[in-house]
Design a protein that fits this description.
By secondary structure, the chain is α+β, with helices and mostly antiparallel strands. The protein has a single domain (3-336), classed as 2,3-Dihydroxybiphenyl 1,2-Dioxygenase, domain 1 (Roll), CATH 3.10.180. It is built from 12 helices and 14 strands. An 8-stranded mixed sheet has the order 3-4-5-2-7-12-9-8, sandwiched between helices. Strands 1-6 form a two-stranded antiparallel ribbon. A two-stranded antiparallel sheet has the order 10-11. Strand 3 and strand 4 form a beta hairpin. The longest helix is centred in the first third of the chain and has 19 residues, at 41-59. The N and C termini lie far apart (44 Å).
Length: 339
């Protein structure tokens, strides 16, 4: 066990969390050794991914049941990527607009832009970020931005009403630690433990309970923005990289789990994705009289992906296709579109 990962995950997730997560997730080979007391950016990125994966499993019973089945059969999940949604809007309170709230975290951790994907049908833009040190082994981030200016004035006002007083969980001390990490590609262990606990809080809802009227206005034009209203910047989904997504889909369907009817295949044919329908959650809204109203809405979900290898024309190197596909992403996003 990597002692640095153990210490960071204990700080962020509680005692014993690291060993539980190691039993269900593959760890990059580069993490087999560590320097005691000094955390690399790759180790901190891996710890963040593991903590966010654990959080998603707490919120997604269907994904948790699948993962427990993998472990029972002697396997481990290969965490491919986590996805989150943001709003590119000037009125986000103290929170930086759109993906800026997360690129300020991802870049010091060693992530770089790996692809941009116009999601025009849902009026969003998606971007993938891969890790420089171990791109095939450390999970990517898929960060999408919604563009309210492409919607009606009533919709735009509802967006402002919902996110206009957002808080920024990233403290000045955390910003200083990120700057040090970007400069040195490493942090002292105690600082890394403290930073990780703050970073995990960034992947949550930063605004208060939305007004039910605003939620209904958003839902009428964008299921994705309605989802952001209730779930914020939490992981929208986490993804297991599997060898045969079609076989996994058939097996999960046979178990009666609510998996997507068809597998999404990229234009290249090398990236294939499917997912469970989002698990339902109960969220609190503010009614017209100011009193709380509880409704069941779509929460997060669990995804599966198969990536084929290809030969890079420039270098001749054979590697996994780490790209995404706009059509695939749009189809997968529909997992949270249920009214």
């Amino acid at each position: 066990m990597n002692g640095n990962l153990d210490a960071m995950l204990e700080a962020a997730c509680g005692a014993g969390a690291a060993r539980q997560l190691v039993q269900l997730m593959n760890i990059p080979p580069s993490m087999e050794r560590c320097e005691a007391g000094i955390v690399t950016r790759a180790e901190l990125a891996q710890a963040l991914n593991m903590a966010l994966f654990a959080d998603l499993l707490k919120r997604v019973p269907t994904g948790r049941a699948y993962t427990e089945g993998v472990v029972r059969e002697g396997g481990r999940v290969q965490f491919d990527h986590g996805a989150l949604r943001t709003v590119r809007w000037a009125h986000c309170g103290a929170l930086p607009p759109g993906e800026t709230a997360f690129t300020r975290i991802l870049k010091p951790l060693g992530y770089r832009l790996n692809g941009t994907y116009p999601l025009d049908r849902i009026k969003m833009t998606g971007r993938s970020y891969a890790h420089l040190d171990a791109p095939e082994h450390i999970a990517q981030f898929f960060v999408s931005e919604l563009h309210p200016e492409r919607f009606s004035p009533a919709f735009q006002q509802a967006v402002t009403n919902v996110v206009g007083a957002s808080a920024d969980p990233l403290t000045p001390q955390a910003v200083a630690w990120l700057a040090e990490l970007e400069r040195d590609a490493a942090l002292p262990l105690l600082d890394a433990c403290s930073l990780l606990t703050i970073l995990v809080r960034c992947f949550d809802r930063q605004h208060g309970a939305p007004r039910l009227a605003d939620y209904q206005t958003l839902l009428a034009e964008s299921a994705e923005m309605a989802w952001i209203a209730t779930e914020g910047n939490a992981f929208n989904h986490a993804t297991d990289r599997v060898s045969d997504v079609f076989a996994v889909a058939d097996a999960q369907r046979a178990l009666g789990r609510p998996i997507k009817e068809r597998v999404e295949v990229s234009k290249s044919g090398r990236v294939k994705q499917t997912a469970f329908q989002a698990d339902r959650v109960v969220r609190v809204f503010r009614g017209e009289d100011g009193m709380p109203v509880r409704l069941e809405v779509p929460g997060s979900f669990y995804e599966f992906i198969t990536r084929d290898t290809y030969a890079d024309e420039a270098s001749g190197r054979v590697g996994l296709d780490l790209g995404f596909d706009a059509g695939n992403a749009t189809g997968i996003f529909k997992m949270t579109a249920a009214a």
